[in-house]
């Protein structure tokens, strides 16, 4: 994990646990950074819902970023699959995973 990620994308959401508890969370993706000529990494976080996540590694910046984004999608899929719900903060308007991650296929 980088000591101070260069976050370049974030989104605030509300997670509603199966027991009705509301959790403010922020999804974050960091700018990919080069580790070597054949390895890149990308910081990723789900602040408020999940503890620290190790940076995601790939063979280039594109792959590291795509894997990090897919990890966020998969982790939120499991949260929803376990009975959780996602909503916009303030309005409590529901959010579908497909709206957050268009084109991503969710797998159990």
What does this structure look like?
The structure is a single chain. By secondary structure, the protein is an alpha+beta fold. It has one domain (7-91). Helices cover 23% and strands 34% of the residues. The protein contains two helices and seven strands; from the N terminus they run ββββββαβα. The strands form two sheets. Strands 5-2-1-7 form a four-stranded antiparallel sheet, covered by helices on one side. It has a three-stranded antiparallel sheet with strand order 3-4-6, covered by helices on one side. β1 (7-16) and β2 (22-30) form a beta hairpin. The mean pLDDT is 91.
Please outline what is shown here.
By secondary structure, the chain is of the alpha+beta class. Helix content is 23%, strand content 34%.
What layout of secondary structure does this protein have?
Blueprint: E1 7-16, E2 22-30, E3 33-36, E4 39-42, E5 44-47, E6 56-58, H1 61-81, E7 85-87, H2 97-100
Antiparallel strand pairs: 1-2, 1-7, 2-5, 3-4, 4-6
How would you classify the quaternary structure?
A: single chain
| Alpha plus pi helix count | 2
The overall strand count is 7
Helix content: 10-25%
| Largest beta-sheet characterization | 4 strands, antiparallel
Would you list the SSEs in sequence order as H and E? EEEEEEHEH
Low-confidence region ranges: none
Structural class: alpha+beta
Query: What is the 3D form?
Result: elongated
Distance between the termini: 26 Å
């Amino acid at each position: 994990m980088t000591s101070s990620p260069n976050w370049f994308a974030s989104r605030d959401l509300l997670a509603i646990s199966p027991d009705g508890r509301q959790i403010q969370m922020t999804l974050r993706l960091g700018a990919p950074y080069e580790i070597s000529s054949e390895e890149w990494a990308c910081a990723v976080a789900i602040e408020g819902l999940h503890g620290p996540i190790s940076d995601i590694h790939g063979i280039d910046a594109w792959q590291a970023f795509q894997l990090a984004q897919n990890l966020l999608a998969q982790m939120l899929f499991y949260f929803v699959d376990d009975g959780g719900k996602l909503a916009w903060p303030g309005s409590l308007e529901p959010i579908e995973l497909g709206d957050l991650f268009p084109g991503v296929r969710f797998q159990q």
